[in-house]
Design goal:
Largest sheet: 6 strands, parallel
CATH architecture: 3-Layer(aba) Sandwich
Strand content: 15-25%
Number of strands: 9
Shape: globular
Strand order of the largest sheet: 2-1-3-4-8-9
CATH superfamily: Alpha/Beta hydrolase fold, catalytic domain
Radius of gyration: 20 Å
Structural class: alpha/beta
Number of domains: 1
């Protein structure tokens, strides 16, 4: 074989049919979903069913919300079970969790849904008490012992899941997983978004986390943002199709 032929053959191995480098990463098929405060993993059902039908391996973390470390550890155990590159998805408080857990080498991209996106040294308390980004309401209360936060059940649908049915919102209000005050005040030890690509979904009618705060955090993280006009905080319930599309983008599909 001539020198020219050899070089041509090597080039053919390096480039795909359309000239795309063969070294381009294959689409990711592992997806790990992390719920937020005042919710649990059952809310992911529509997102899970859609992704699973498309061939993804989907895992749902049930975080205890007793401390940030406990939630990161719970997420890490699920990441450890993945068989390769993974998209890590977090809703609300789950964003605080995936920002730290996402430092794991298996995690290749991050998806934030109406989520907190801290930097190293920032806690949820740090972010949500910034004067220029006040909380949309004061309906998050402390338990009698002062150790946990919960959303006032009478305000749950209005503030958290306005576009869900009254029956579903009522059930969620009375099955919510409450968040420890300790977790709320614990700063992040790592911020995976500094080194990994990020996507975000911004609900256009969020009454749980200040929408301007979300915009600021997403811009800082250089996340690719999809805005969903009129959606409440639980965008994964009301617009699972949008959420799935964003996850697929993060997976390289």
């Amino acid at each position: 074989m001539s020198k020219f032929s050899t070089l041509f053959a090597l080039g053919a191995l390096t480039l795909g049919v359309a000239g795309t480098p063969a070294a381009q990463a294959a689409p990711i098929h592992n997806v790990v979903l992390v719920h937020g405060a005042f919710a649990d993993g059952s809310g992911w059902r529509a997102v899970y069913d859609s992704l699973a039908a498309k061939g993804y391996k989907v895992s749902i973390v049930q975080i205890p919300e007793t401390s940030l470390a406990a939630d990161v550890d719970a997420t890490q155990r699920v990441i450890d079970q993945q068989d390769g590159p993974t998209v890590l998805v977090g809703h609300s408080w789950g964003g605080q969790v995936i920002t730290e857990a996402g430092a794991d080498p298996k995690v290749k991209s991050l998806v934030y849904l109406a989520a907190l996106v801290p930097d190293v040294g920032e806690s949820t308390a740090t972010l949500e008490t910034m004067a220029k980004y006040p909380a949309p309401n004061d309906d998050v209360k402390k338990t009698a012992d002062g150790k946990f936060f919960y959303m006032d059940p009478t305000k749950f649908r209005e503030n958290f899941a306005a576009d869900s049915s009254p029956a579903l919102a009522d059930f969620m209000a009375h099955s919510q997983v409450i968040l420890s005050v300790e977790a709320f005040g614990t700063p992040a030890k790592a911020a995976a978004w500094h080194t990994k690509p990020s996507w975000a979904v911004l609900p256009g009618a969020d009454k749980t986390i200040n929408m301007d705060l979300q915009r600021w955090m997403y811009e800082r993280a250089k996340a690719k943002v999809t805005t969903v006009p009129g959606s409440s905080h639980t965008v994964f319930l009301s617009h699972p199709d949008v959420v799935v599309k964003v996850i697929e983008e993060a997976a390289g599909k």
